[in-house]
Amino acid sequence: MNRGSVSTGFNIDNSCVFVDTDRSSTGNGANSHLHFTPSSTGNRKVGTFSAWVKRSHIDSIDAIFSSGQNDQHFRFQTTGINIRDYNESTQLQTNAIYRDTAAFYHFVMAVDTTQGTAANRLKLYVNGDQVTSFSTETYPTQNQDWNFNYTGNKMFIGARRWYNDDVIQGLDGYMADVYWIDGQQLAATDFGEYDDDSGIWKPKAYSGTFGTNGCYLKFDDSSSLGADSSGNGNDWTEVNIAAANQSTDTPTNNFCTLLGQQQDAVTGTEPSIKEGGTTMFGGSTSSQNAVGTMGLRSGKWYFESTITNSGGVDTDNHNFGVVAADQITALSTGGGNDLGYVSGGWAMSSNAAARNNNGYASGYNATSALAVDEIMGVAIDMDNGKIWWHREGTWTSLNSTVGNPANGTTPSFSNLLTATDEPLLPAGGFYINNNDQVRVMNFGGYAQAVFTAVGTYADANGYGSFAYQPPTGFYAICGKNLAEYGGTA
User: For labelling, which of 159, 222, 310, 368 has a CA lying 20 to 30 Å from the CA of 130?
Assistant: First the structure.
C-alpha cells in the first residue's frame, strides 16, 4: 500500500503523471516531460537528484532525469537502473531490475566528483538503502565536470535529451516530491526515513538549501506543474503536461492501478498498459484482460471504467469487474476468456449482462449497449460478498428491481466470498477485433478527462476523483482507505 498504513508525519499530496507517446529511435518530443535551462552555471561536480517514482509501463528504456546532448542520464532499462555519462565512459548498471508497478520507489542519485575514493563520486540509493551491487561499475574520474547545472544546457525530467532538442525514452508513470540540489552530495536520509514501528521507508521534509540551480517540484499547482517550490524560482517548462496530469496517487496514499506489462507469464498477448496505469489497449487475439495492483478481501470499494475506442466490436463484448488472484492465468486459456468466464471472476458488459462462472445473473435486465465514452461503475462489498454495477449513474436491476449498494439490496451477485478464498483484483477486458480497442479505468488517483468531464466526486474520506458519486459507505481503492477498512496490497 506504500505508506497508506504508516503515519508519515509528512504527506505528499500530489504527483505528476508522465505519458510516453513516442518510442521511436530519434524522438519527436511527443511524450510528456519537463525541462529547465540554467541561466548561470552552478556546481558541475556536485549535485543530488531525489524523486519518488511509480512506473505504469515496463519498456526497454524509460528516462527519469537527463542532461546534455545525449550525454548524461539516469534511467530504467530492462536490466535495471542505468546511470551513464557517454562522454566520460562513466556508467553504473544495477543488478536489481525495479519493475514493480504497484508501488512508488524512492531514488536518490548523489554526485561528488571531487571525492578521492572513486565509489564516493557517484552514489545511488533506492528506498533508503545505498545500492552496491552493479553489473557495470565505472565511476567518474576525479573532478570530472558533468553537464548538469551548465549554462544554456537543458536538463530533463521524464525523458532523455536527443539531438536537436528532440527527446526519447519517455517515462510512463508517476513522479512525486522531486528535488534537484545544486552543490551538495546528499544521502537518502535527507529526504526520507525508516518508520520506527514498521521499518517502512517513508518520505520526510527536506530542510536544507538548494544551491543556484536547485529546485523542488511539489506538483501542487495544477496550472503550473513545473513550478519550483524551493524559493529559487527555477520553474521547469512543461511539454505535453497540463492540469489533467496532476494526480493524488502519491507515496503517502498509493492508489490501485492496472498491473504493468511484466505479466507476460500470464498472457502472451496481453494489452499494453500506459497513462498512469489507467489505460489498456491493443493485444492481438481473442479476449484481452488486465488486472489491478491491489487485492481486496474485506471492506467496500468503488471504481469506474469506459471504452474510449471499441475497435469496431460491439461494446457489450467489453466488460469489467473483479477476478480472484488465482484465476488470472485461467483468463488466458482456450485462446482467451473474459472475466465472467471463470469461477472466480465477475464482470458486467455494457448491456447490463452480468456474468460469473460463465453464467448470467439470474433475472438480469438487459439493455442497449452503452456507447463509446459512456461510463460504468462498480461497487464491491467484500464484507458481505456482494457486487453491483451502474450504467451512467443508474444501478442495474434484477427482475426490474434496481440495486442499491448503500442499502445492500439487489446485488447482481452475492457469492464473492463463497466462490473463492482469494483476494479479488479489479479488472477490465475487451474482445479483440482490430487491435484498436481502448479501455480506460478510473480508480480515483488519476482520473482522465473522459471521467472529469462528467464529474469530480470524492469518496466519503475525501479521496479520489470519480465521474459519479461513490455510494455511501464505499471507498476508493487506495492505501489510506485500505489501512482503515482492511485489504491487502
Answer: 159
Rg of the chain (C-alpha set): 23
Tell whether 137 and 273 lie within a shared domain: no
Q: Do 295 and 352 fall into the same domain? A: yes
| Cβ 338 vs Cβ 347: under 8 Å | yes
How far is residue 398's CA from residue 365's CA, in Å, rounded to a whole number? Answer: 6
Where b means 16+ CB within 10 Å and e means fewer, 59-86 reads bebbbbbbbbeebbbbbbbeebbbbbbe
Three cell numbers written together for 17: 503523471
Question: Sheet holding 394-395: strands in order across?
Answer: 272-274, 279-281, 438-442, 300-309, 376-381, 386-391, 394-395
Instruction: For residue 463, give every residue at least 6 positions away whose Cβ sits within 8 Å of its Cβ, in sequence order, or none.
Output: 248, 253, 444, 475, 476, 478, 480, 481
pTM, two decimal places: 0.93
Model pLDDT for residues 228-238, shown as the tens digit of each residue: 999 999 999 99
User: pLDDT digits over 360-374, tens only?
Assistant: 999 999 999 999 999
Residue 255 lies in a domain: no
Distance CA 148, CA 212 (A): 12
Q: Which domain range does residue 30 map to? A: 13-247
What SS3 class is residue 87? coil
In a domain, 63, yes or no: yes
Half-sphere exposure of 59 (CA within 13 A, CB side): 24
Q: What cell numbers appear for 420 in the block?
A: 473463492
Q: Under DSSP, is residue 247 helix (H, G, I), strand (E, B) or coil?
A: strand
